[in-house]
Amino acid sequence: MSTRAKSRSVTAVADRVRPGIRFLVIDPNAEDSASHFVRLQEIDAQGRFYVDGHELALGVGTTVHLFSVGQGATVCLEANVEARSRLKGGLPVMVLEPPRKLERRPRRSCFRMQVLLPGHLEWTDAEGGGNRLPVTVTNLSGGGCRLAAGGAPPAGEDLSLTLDVPEDYVQHLVEQRLERDPRTRLPTEDPLAIAWTVRKQLEGALSRLRGDLLNLSPIATGEAFELAFAFHEPKEQCFRLVHFLQRRALRRGLLDSATISN
């Protein structure tokens, strides 16, 4: 790429993002495709990104993919890790070389976790009627999921997915809220009230997730179907849920191993 073309590319990227935007960062060459969230703190005159992911185990020269989260249309970028540094206020940051636009987003760019979560698909038919199809999510990532269902939505419909909130995930977030620094926790906070608030927040974050049906395969006699569903944009709460399920599975595996060894 010529210097002039590179300059135009950097300018185009800078025009689409601003400091404060959150990005999902993925090392596409990592075996587990582990995902991390960072916040863009600063863009310098050369177009380098300064993000608060200094603690990530990404070596200098590593190529990473970045996907914007919660900013409407997803911005997909590719960049190399240049260095570790600190901003003027002392905040440690990871420095990324001027990012390039990722022309084609990888179909599977994030870790998927096998799960069994109930939920339902919704769509509106040509007559304006609402439709609801119960499904079971069999694997999940922040970018999409695989579903099992007793039927299939018509092709070309505008679909949305709602997941039932796992009770142990609610409990985990409530415990996190209660264990935080007492100086920042209100003395009037009640565990039941916190649980209600957390549940409502999760229900909102895991409801009406819009996406596209990528694949539809009949199971056995054709009375059931397996569906591949891709979200229109990365869902941060889905990534967080997957990370929780990963840690839970690891803890259970360690406990099972300890039980067997004893």
Please tell me about this protein's structure.
With 262 residues, this protein is α+β, with helices and mostly antiparallel strands. The protein has 2 domains: 3-101, Electron Transport, Fmn-binding Protein, Chain A (Pnp Oxidase, Chain A), CATH 2.30.110; 113-165 and 206-261, predicted glycosyltransferase like domains (Thrombin, subunit H), CATH 2.40.10.220. The chain is 26% helix and 36% strand. The protein is built from 4 helices and 13 strands. The chain has helices at 3-16, 167-179, 191-205, 236-261; strands at residues 22-26, 35-43, 49-51, 63-69, 76-86, 92-96, 100-101, 113-124, 130-140, 144-149, 159-163, 209-219, 224-231. It has a 6-stranded antiparallel β-barrel. It has a 6-stranded antiparallel β-barrel with strand order 8-9-10-13-12-11.
List the helices and strands and how they pair.
Layout: H1 3-16, E1 22-26, E2 35-43, E3 49-51, E4 63-69, E5 76-86, E6 92-96, E7 100-101, E8 113-124, E9 130-140, E10 144-149, E11 159-163, H2 167-179, H3 191-205, E12 209-219, E13 224-231, H4 236-261
Antiparallel strand pairs: 1-2, 1-4, 2-3, 3-6, 4-5, 5-6, 5-7, 8-9, 8-11, 9-10, 10-13, 11-12, 12-13
Helix pairs in contact: 2-3
CATH topology of the largest domain: Thrombin, subunit H
Across the major sheet, the strand order is 1-2-3-6-5-4
Tally of distinct domains? 2
Work out the radius of gyration: 21 Å
Distance between the termini: 61 Å
Individual helix count: 4
The topology string of helices and strands comes to HEEEEEEEEEEEHHEEH
User: In terms of quaternary structure, what is this?
Assistant: single chain
- Tell me the number of strands: 13
Shape: globular
CATH architecture of the largest domain: Beta Barrel
Low-confidence stretches: 254-262
Structural class: alpha+beta
The CATH superfamily name of the largest domain is: predicted glycosyltransferase like domains
Give the fraction of residues assigned to helices.
25-40%
Relative strand content: 35-45%
The largest sheet is: 6 strands, antiparallel, barrel
| Name of the top-level CATH class of the largest domain | Mainly Beta
Overall mean pLDDT stands at 77
